[in-house]
Design goal:
- It is a single chain.
- It contains nine helices and two strands.
- Helix 6 runs antiparallel to helix 9.
- The protein has 272 residues and is mainly α.
- It has a single domain, classed as Up-down Bundle (Four Helix Bundle (Hemerythrin (Met), subunit A)), CATH 1.20.120.1760.
- The radius of gyration is 24 Å and the shape is globular.
Length: 272
């Protein structure tokens, strides 16, 4: 019976675990990620209301916030697995579902079920690309130099480049009977770029250390870019989209060059 009713001393009562407050520097990157997700959701609502210009701007805001959250987390040393997962979920919504939905409401609905299938493929490609990105993060054998490159087109870039038909429409480009088929083919091309293994430049190391001689030109260039985006938004988005797609072969060439040089260095070290 003594085992059923062991002696109890008041001092033996377990103390409740103290819940430590979370530093704001840990919350800040996640708040920025949530704002990016809200911008993507807002873009879908604006598309339903027929406000294509505002919908595109909402996706652009989501992309800017998505580019900031990771850098803020690294600067504040508050990166976490939770933040990475939240970022992926936000990216799928803002850069996979939202652009596909906007493009379907804009022109793909003319193709009826075929247009919907294209929208589904675009969103699915975004999900697969993000899942592969999460797996690559945990790869311990990934060389350090490869961290400056993405495998396939990243979701934010795919969203902004995928909206090229809307940019052209807002700039006054007319629609003809075959326009919807061209838009569908273009969306499938962007979807293929997301799931492909074509390397694209990540630019994660840009901004960590800036040479003194580049400080003033960089500041002037950023101001000029922001001013042009603010005053000639859709002209700049169309131009940047075309330039980005045209630069893909240069990114692949740079990747292959680095791959060969690092392979030669590894071979030289193994021989010595």
């Amino acid at each position: 019976m003594s085992d059923l009713f062991p002696p109890f001393e008041p001092d033996d009562e377990p103390k409740p675990r103290r819940i430590r407050p979370v530093p704001f520097r840990v919350l800040l990157p996640n708040l920025v990620t949530l704002l990016s997700m809200c911008a993507g959701l807002t873009a879908m609502r604006l598309a339903i209301e027929g406000k294509l210009e505002n919908a595109v701007i909402a996706i652009l805001i989501a992309a800017v916030l998505d580019g900031l959250d990771g850098r803020i987390a690294r600067m504040l040393k508050s990166t976490s697995r939770f933040g990475a997962e939240l970022d992926s979920l936000s990216d799928f919504l803002s850069f996979g579902v939202a652009p596909a939905f906007i493009l379907y409401t804009y022109g793909l609905h003319d193709l009826k079920s075929v247009g919907w299938v294209v929208a589904l493929l675009f969103a699915s490609a975004s999900a697969l690309r993000l899942a592969r990105f999460n797996v690559a993060i945990d790869d311990p054998h990934r060389p350090e130099w490869q961290k400056d490159f993405f495998v396939g087109m990243p979701a934010p870039a795919a969203a902004l480049t995928g909206l090229l038909p809307i940019y052209l429409h807002l700039l006054g480009a007319g629609r003809f009977p075959g326009t919807a088929f061209l838009e569908a083919a273009y969306m499938l091309f962007i979807a293929f770029m997301m799931v492909s293994r074509i390397p694209t430049f990540a630019g994660k190391s840009i901004g960590m250390r800036v040479p003194r001689s580049f400080v003033v030109p960089l500041m002037i260039g950023v101001v000029a870019l922001v001013a042009l985006l603010a005053t000639h938004t859709f002209e700049m988005l169309a131009l940047l989209t075309i330039a980005y797609i045209a630069a893909v072969p240069l990114m692949v060439r740079r990747y292959r060059s680095l791959e060969r040089s690092h392979a030669a260095e590894s071979a030289a070290k193994s021989d010595s």
